[in-house]
Amino acid sequence: xxxxxxxxxxxxxxxxxxxxxxxxxxxxxxxxxxxxxxxxxxxxxxxxxxxxxxxxxxxxxxxxxxxxxxxxxxxxxxxxxxxxxxxxxxxxxxxxxxxxxxxxxxxxxxxxxxxxxxxxxxxxxxxxxxxxxxxxxxxxxxxxxxxxxxxxxx
Length: 154
What we know:
This protein is mainly alpha-helical.
């Protein structure tokens, strides 16, 4: 089990470093896409095999509510049948948090069992936490050796 744990830890540390490289690279290439006026770059290895495409996608246009009060007034006036009664989301969050802390679905102010609220156990999972030394070592190794080549190219 120790060898497998070591493999999982090293892979997780490497993945974190790769994520940093990818994030930084995306920021740099975004600027290059903007400056060049292009929106795609085909990536090939040294033998000419196509490894993939990096593209600069335009952001999606979508509607959102910029003024909740104005929107509410408009709906009340023009579509009153679309109004619904809801529980205050902040109260719901506070109550569920209190129930979680208590370990049972009870109202913290009265001790009363809250109808409709149940407790659930999350699925077990593996957690990987590299030490600061392990992270530094992985960063140093990545700096020394860079990214591995895929298919014999860069």
